[in-house]
Amino acid sequence: MKLKHKIIALNMGALFFMLIILGTIITEITDNYNLRTTLQYLENQGNYSAIYIEQYALSKAPNDFEVPSVISTSANYLAAVLKDLVKCRVQIYYGNELLGDSEEITSPKEEIRPEIKETFKKKKAYMIAAGKNRVFYYAVPVSIGNRYTYSLGFIYDLREADNMKNNTIRMFVFTGVFLSIFMMLGSTVISNRITKPIKLLNEATGRFSEGDFESRAVVVTGDEVGELSATFNSMADSIKDMIAMLNYEKEKQKYFFDNFTHEIRTPLTTILGYADLLWKTNDEEVRDKSLFYITSEGRRMLKMMEGLLELSKLKNYSFELNKTDSNLKRLIEDACDSMHYKMKRYDTVCRLDLENITWKVDPDFFKQVIINLIDNAIKYSKSPIIDISLKKQEGVRLEVIDYGCGIDQKSLENLLEPYYKVEQSRNSCNEGWGLGLSIVKEIVDKHGGNIEVDSAAGEGTRIVITLD
Ligand SMILES: Nc1ncnc2c1ncn2[C@@H]1O[C@H](COP(=O)(O)OP(=O)(O)O)[C@@H](O)[C@H]1O
Ligand SMILES: [Mg+2]
Is 407 a residue whose pLDDT tops 80? Predict the structure, then answer.
């Protein structure tokens, strides 16, 4: 059963239940009231009639013993008079014998009714006969003198009360039908309003589960369903982002793998080529040259493997740096010292502008960062001057600036990826593997810092590292 139909059924059920309870109570209350007033009326009229008969008999019968004959002869007359007064059929009994009736007696041998029998004990009594048309029977004893007790019976038609009862029931049925139609329409509108956002959400999740990651629920209401739709939407956003991230990671991995195989092929081909030559030649010079290349290419490959190992070590989440309070100024000066000979070879000088800052870093890794940046500036930019500045502003700001060849905008995007090399340096310089800057980035990341490369072709490069 659909939610919409459940809501409608529930509303209709509640309405019917309410109408039946209310209808029964109201019908019973009004009917009881009618019966009570009828009883009161008959009690009054009964008392009055009893007195009337008594007075009549006493006035017509000067002697006590004449009372039976007076009543017997006037019973029909008395009943007729009382009928006009009380507005119902009146009967007069003496014991089991019916003496007078305000209406014609159709079946002469009628059973004596229970309420009449009660009057034999000098008690008033009543009885309501159920049926299509109910009848209220009421009886009072009439004592005349000391010796005679007659019974006076009223047969009161309850047609009016019955009509009222039936009208009340009819009114409730009519109201019930009217309200049902109204409720049906109202419930349909309400349930549509409630279920529509659920339906929309359902459709959105259905589309999403079939792979349409753009699918979003329309948030129509501010209620729980609206909240659920909004939650679904933000979940869908997160899933979409995650999928995009996974795709990006996958692409990066593929890029890494492609580059790795490409890089490793060249030295391996060189090594195999010279090894092959060794088998074939007896020439001393060729042998020496072959051995030289095999060794130097082997060393280069070893260096790359070391770089790769280091990168993988840094990328490992569980790997922790060994941070201690270190004097950054001294670390940078040390790094410059160790690059002294290379700088001399490339005719480059370092200009230092360093504040004396002590910061929590891993000194070995931090020094490696500086060496990598200076090394790049020396060998790739060919800049005659390298400016290194260290300043304290909020955190620590380290800048390594050269004024050499610079890096084009397109290359800047991938510069920090492993094996990325700017095209021109691929040809001009065979020294690096393109791992240096990715190692630098990992080290900076592990320090919780940030690295930015700002460069323009022909103008130089500025690398800014900030530590918080
Ligand atoms: N200061 C710079 N000036 C110009 N090019 C640079 C500079 N630093 C890095 N590059 C370019 O970025 C590429 C990647 O550098 P890096 O990751 O350090 O590789 P490697 O480990 O081979 O030195 C280099 O191939 C080089 O072309
Ligand atoms: Mg480098």
Answer: yes
Q: Which ligand approaches the C-alpha of residue 434 most closely?
A: 1
- 463 alpha carbon – ligand 1 mean position (Å): 11
**Average pLDDT rounded to a whole number, residues 277-301:** 91
- Does a structural domain hold residue 104? yes
For residue 263, what pLDDT band results from cuts at 50, 70 and 90?
A: confident
Pick the last residue of a domain from 165, 193, 215.
165
Residue written as tokens 């006009």? 84
> Could you tell me the CATH number of the domain that includes residue 126?
3.30.450.20
Amino acid at 30: T
Label the pairing between strands 324-327 and 358-361: antiparallel
Q: Name the average pLDDT for the chain.
A: 91
Model confidence at 13: pLDDT above 80:
yes
Pocket, ligand 1, Cβ cutoff 6 A = 372, 376-377, 380-381, 402, 404-405, 407, 415, 420-422, 425, 432-437, 461
- Single pTM value for the model: 0.56
| Ligand sitting nearest the alpha carbon of 461 | 1
CA–CA distance from 177 to each of 15, 16, 17, 184 (Å)? Answer: 10, 10, 13, 10
Kindly give the number of the ligand 1 atom that is closest to the alpha carbon of 404. Answer: 3
The tens digit of pLDDT for each residue in 195-235 reads 888 888 999 999 999 999 899 988 877 888 889 999 999 99
pLDDT at 430 over 60: no
The boundaries of the domain holding residue 460 are 321-467
Contact 215, 201 (CB under 8 A): no
Does 71 map to a domain? yes
Averaged pLDDT for residues 17-41: 95
For atom 15 of ligand 1, the residue with the nearest CA is 434
**Residues 176-189: what's their mean pLDDT?**
92
Strand 349-354 with 385-393, pairing: parallel
Distance 60 CA to ligand 1 centre (A): 145
CA of residue 402 to ligand 2 center, whole Å:
14
Q: Confirm whether 252 is domain-assigned.
A: no
Predicted confidence band of residue 105 (pLDDT cuts 50, 70, 90): confident
Q: List Cα–Cα distances, 243 to 191, 202, 216, 253, in angstroms.
A: 37, 22, 16, 15
Ligand 2 centroid to Cα of residue 377, in Å, is 8
Q: Which of 202, 215, 210, 211 is nearest to 243 (CA)?
A: 211
CATH code: domain of residue 390 = 3.30.565.10
